[in-house]
């Protein structure tokens, strides 16, 4: 479901009003030149994405005051507002329709302050995750949430989706690293929520309500985030297993140990094959599945010894990698497994309780049998979050932009399986436009009603990001 | 501000209806026998606490269904409901008036499940924090939030206040350990929010909204909490300094290091003197202030070496304690510093950014000069959360139950100072009834309006805990 396309006149009138009253704010009218803003990474990749050749209107504010002015005047004109970060999202949450006003934070890119003494940074939402970390590294600090897309995703978008990433197995997701926010609400007012202190319980936790709210409650214009010291040491460890099932089962041995690695990524056999094919690596020669692990902090030798014993006992071939080899492996992980252009595909980001990961991998055979699809997954195994890839070979002569219903059905089936074992539709990408039906399966009618009541309390006219999230 | 006392008839009619329609639920009418339920630990200790000799009506549900029935029928009768855990709260959040119905979770004490494989426990709200940890210890697991009151405080109350504690410097506050909740809303419906998986971003984060909401949004009847492995090792370290100022300044040396202890408690000079007087310890002989630290995890020797070097360089006398001595020291910390019955006193739980802790201690001299009070504080220094104790000697012949305005003014002044350096009114106890004026100083009118709108969205008639929190 997306919001209805308005008559062009409402949007045109809004753009004209903005250009007259606020010439200092760059606003681009709806045109073929803004067509990129119809999409985020999810709908751009999706075969069934919008084929419109006319984009939305796009505003590029350069200050929080600009955002306030834009929201106030859009509300006056009754034009829906789509908040947008770097547009790298994987759920359609930042996609727009031709009749909407996109407020992009791509020019709000200042790092306003870094305080090593308080272990906080204050940043504008358009700062890229990797930019912030590059800025912090010389100070011996880092910002823990690290989505695989960190080179292209912005802090504002990370906040909107409560982004996870590789290291959140140990350090928590974005929510655990956000202390305070400045947010523009639907009436154009600016509120500051949270505090610079690490702790604080005064009033309801509005920071957590805004984090992960997918742009439906307000627009974040500044964030105070928590920093951490770069650990005393980091070491990459590989554990190869003969099969996918053996590797998945071995995760329980880590849970039963006292070692909590900063990263635990699991690659099943088809993923290793796919990476090898696209990156000229030779991972599959070393085993039929891989746990790629990062240990960090103090006592690396002690940690490694306990981890090695735990994984060796369940069939793992465990090795501490050199720094150089470790870098190559992490680069392979972050680049993704590659896509084959001769197949339709569908992804996702289900999360399940840790002990249920092996059952999810075992269920791939059921899907294959039932729908004729190929299924593989790389997993943030330390916290039970999987990125499945469901593919179906495009037959000769078939329309590549028209995947058959079986692809959708298989995706749906897998998500319902995750729900049946206590999991969730989305572990870190958000619901956006592409998972709304499934979100309604996960959330009971009463819970959905509560969500809508909270939305209406802060945005009574439904100005922000209509048709998204829940 | 407390809610107005209703005419007895409304409450009497409610109790009669409950006894007739639900004889299986124990309900005690308003009477002198329920007078304890007028108070929590804050208002019981406060000289100006309610002097009523008639308590509220009290219901003791034994199941979630009982809670639903109670809420539904209280709503029908228009009688306000005060949710209550163990009554150990320090902000008046669980205090009641004679005209209200207290729904106490003291009989919902089942540990429903412990899953080492998923690292979760499912518990009813009346389980005491220390009970849960005693149950988990043989499994090699622990529940991280550990308020100093853990022997008497319940998980439900911890959730209502987003309780902190000693170890949250490293492991986070209650919010970071709660994955899912079953909550009874004001219409008597039961919703399940969150999920058993560690990650999940489907919909707005209702779990975080309920955690710390001080009973104004609903009644938690079950919680799925996150567990952690008991660390490979724990070591208690003391660092004594010549003065309060030197010890407070030394905190920056920990921040500048790569060591992040599981606990960092700071005792100023008057606190050491007070503990010695009440516990026959001899801490003051060892120094004029104390950092009491717990290191945990792997590489304890490496951690200790880096910490010792950092603190020795700024004048600390650093020592690793034996396990036996460590236990004595933590027991002294958890028992509190003791109260002198010949003084009026006022407490609190302000939190400030880490680097501002020394200024807070320096400000005590200003308060002493300005109001003639004595001020000291023990601090959860790892996260900037302080527990000040402001005392004023009761002159001969004065009424002990009537402290002078200067005590209130000094408390108020200190909180405003914390706010002026980026801090918050309450780091972990909540606002309850006793800090509402100050919460209104911290939260802007627009932020307060947003909080009230969210409250109204979930509890439109204001059934739950009127007059509390914000």
Could you please describe the fold and organization of this structure?
The structure is a homodimer of 470-residue chains. The first copy, chain A, is of the alpha+beta class. Chain A has 4 domains: 105 residues, 2-Layer Sandwich (Uridine Diphospho-n-acetylenolpyruvylglucosamine Reductase, domain 2), CATH 3.30.43.10; 119 residues, Uridine Diphospho-n-acetylenolpyruvylglucosamine Reductase, domain 3 (2-Layer Sandwich), CATH 3.30.465.10; 102 residues, Alpha-Beta Plaits, CATH 3.30.70.2190; 87 residues, 2-Layer Sandwich (Alpha-Beta Plaits), CATH 3.30.70.2740. In chain A, 34% of the residues lie in helices and 20% in strands. In chain A, the strands form 4 sheets. In chain A, strands 15-12-14-13-17-18-16 form a 7-stranded antiparallel β-sheet, with helices on both faces. In chain A, strands 5-6-10-8-9 form a 5-stranded antiparallel β-sheet. In chain A, a hairpin with a 4-residue loop joins strand 5 and strand 6. Chain A is globular, with a radius of gyration of 23 Å. Chain A starts with 7 loop residues before the first helix and ends in a 12-residue tail after the last helix. The interface between A and B is large, with 95 and 95 residues.
